[in-house]
Specification:
By secondary structure, the protein is an alpha+beta fold. The chain is built from five helices and three strands. Helix 1 runs antiparallel to helix 4.
């Protein structure tokens, strides 16, 4: 049920902002990720733990500092799922369009 963890992780604006920040740099400290988000260090750690549980980020100990790095493999699973749903809906809408265009009453 790893996918459920991924979507839970992506379902919060604070966590999405953290992921956006990580996507723009190779890694960041917890303080750097939480800067300007209006939360305590402990609150940031709770948000990060959700991302860690979803395998979307990894925590790496660098001396006394914890570095957070993006783990794009889990995001690739979500991207593939969304792409699959998009293809399905495109096909359905294409069939609906054909049906509507072939109906002489429209």
């Amino acid at each position: 049920m790893q996918e459920a963890h991924i979507y839970k992780a992506l379902g919060d604006p604070t966590r999405l902002e953290m992921l956006r920040r990580l996507s723009m740099q190779a890694g960041a400290s917890i303080g750097e990720l939480s800067a300007g988000l209006g939360m305590s260090r402990q609150g940031a750690r709770k948000q990060l733990q959700v991302l860690v549980d979803a395998n979307v980020v990894r925590l790496m100990q660098r001396g006394r500092q914890t570095e957070v790095v993006l783990a794009p493999e889990a995001l690739a699973q979500a991207r593939e799922f969304i792409a699959c749903m998009e293809r399905d809906w495109d096909a359905r809408l294409g069939r609906l369009k054909q049906l509507l265009e072939s109906d002489p009453g429209t």
